[in-house]
Amino acid sequence: MAVYTTIDDPSAHFQTQLWTGNGASSDRNITNTGNSDLQPDMIWGACRSHVQHRHATDSSRGWSTGNKEMPLNYNNVEGDTNAINTGAYGWLGPSITDGFVSNYGSVNNGYWNVDTRTYCAWQWKANGGTTSSNTDGQITSTVQANQTAGFSIVTWTTDGSTKTVGHGLGAKPDVIIARSRNAAGNWLVIYDVVDGSMDYMMFNATNAATTINYDAPTSSVFSYNDNNNNTQVAYCFKSIQGYSKMGTYFGNGATNGPFVYTGFKPEFIIVKNTEAANMWNIYDGQRKRGNSDYVNMFYMNGTNAEYTGTSYHNLDILSNGFKIRLTDASQNGNGQAHFYMAFAKSPFVTSTGIPATAR
User: pTM of the predicted model, to two decimals?
Assistant: First the structure.
């Protein structure tokens, strides 16, 4: 029997959750609404309606006092005294049985709960916060992994030279998103999904892809060098049939843009032109434009609110992938390669061979 997917309910491993701030001067539980309960281990948060930094928190680094948040669109260190990172502005986490806490801060109602402002959190499950020491690489790392869903969180300390680091996935990762924690630095998106070479871009910048002199990752380790004795964090992802897919497509510059087959109906999509200086575009199945099926767009490497204009729409989310509709070079540069990561709302065909409802 053909194996179509091993994950019939993606919401057990990834969910998007929306909420509206109520201005309360207290912590607030944000409950997920997916089919399965999800206690996330990594949260990426963004304000939909107002200018605000995008933040990342995770259970490996810890949730306490907001000093573990790091902006995804900026190079601040973890726990920087800059107000965007401090507990005075509130923070997201810890996770709860089915969701997470929006922690109150003394400034501006916690940053994540300002009255009437709208918010979004993208959440991944690793191993419930339980970590283990990993000695597969030349440097010992601390890992929590969800091998079923192809996701792990890795922390370690560099020694100033290129060394291998264990990732715990049990399979070769397609994408590694990493940066230093105790020193200002860029979010490196390292990937091997195009031509066998190792390339990288930066979440907090618009740069085109650049080749990096690292050995390709294996089923147990990846290579990394920060040139200094710095603490690091990496989020590692492996494509899982029917649940997640990382790869590239080529644009045609037309409103009838390329169709990207994923093998599932996407719940989350992130796209970046690899050949030109363009923004990172984020879409999900929850942030729709009014009552239509048009989905709103975020820039990962910006602070602006989501785009909600009605003059055009950017892409169609389909039962087996997505289709680009925007002519902009950020996601449809004519003849140019575009990197993408996508996570599922539902598989195109279930593990028992039942097709999803077509669109």
Answer: 0.95
pLDDT, one tens digit for every residue, the chain (359 residues)? 456 889 999 999 999 999 999 988 889 999 999 999 999 999 999 999 998 889 899 999 998 776 788 889 988 888 775 555 566 778 899 999 999 999 887 665 568 998 999 999 999 999 999 999 999 999 999 999 999 999 999 999 999 999 999 999 999 999 999 999 999 899 999 998 656 679 999 999 999 999 999 999 999 999 999 988 999 999 999 999 999 999 999 999 999 999 999 999 999 999 999 999 999 999 999 998 766 667 888 899 988 999 877 655 788 999 999 999 989 999 999 999 999 999 999 988 887 777 765 44
Beta bridge partners of 164: 223
The domain segmentation of the chain, as residue ranges, is 10-124, 132-237, 245-347
Tokens of 263: 């093998």
Sorted by sequence, the CB contacts under 8 Å of residue 265 that are 6+ apart come out as 285, 317, 318, 319, 320, 344, 345, 346, 347, 348, 356, 359
